[in-house]
Amino acid sequence: MNYVMASTIGAVGMAIFVTAVRVKAAKKPASAKKIILPPIFMSTGALMFIFPMFRVHFLQILEAITVGMLFSILLIKTSQFEVRDREIFLKRSKAFIFILIGLLVVRVIAKLVLSSTIDVGELSGMFWILAFAMIVPWRIAMYRQFKKLHNELH
Questions:
Q1: Which of 6, 54, 72, 93 would staple 78 via disulfide (CB 3.0–4.6 Å)?
Q2: In angstroms, rounded to a whole number, what is the distance separating the alpha carbons of residues 99 and 102?
Q3: 112, 4 Cβ separation under 8 angstroms
Q4: Tens-place pLDDT, residues 48-104
Q5: d(Cα 30, Cα 122) in Å, to the nearest integer?
Q6: What is the pTM of this model?
């Protein structure tokens, strides 16, 4: 149970960090690099699967990917760009923060419920897959929208 609590506290910390980064990022022009790099950096987390305790079964992978992709729809819908002073900025969205908090609450509740039936290592692997399956489609959608605006400007 200590691992579950520690990872939950970590998830809350990451949510606060992401929210702060998002608010700060909205003040500066967007770039393709800023959109593409987070999933690349996050991909290094896949190294956890080298260790047997983090490996998950095929159905668990499918479940995590499905939930992650469903969650990404909410993030895609609340991430829009706008042109200001001939530069592209991420629009501020009040809904984004509430959605991020809502997703966090759902993840924490799911983790607490599932931790009684799924090993903590497997659960960690599943939640990493879920997060990665959430961020990749979101960032691809953001990149496509950014490129479209960028091409219209130039």
A1: 93
A2: 5
A3: yes
A4: 999 999 999 999 999 999 999 999 999 899 899 999 999 999 887 778 778 878 888
A5: 36
A6: 0.85
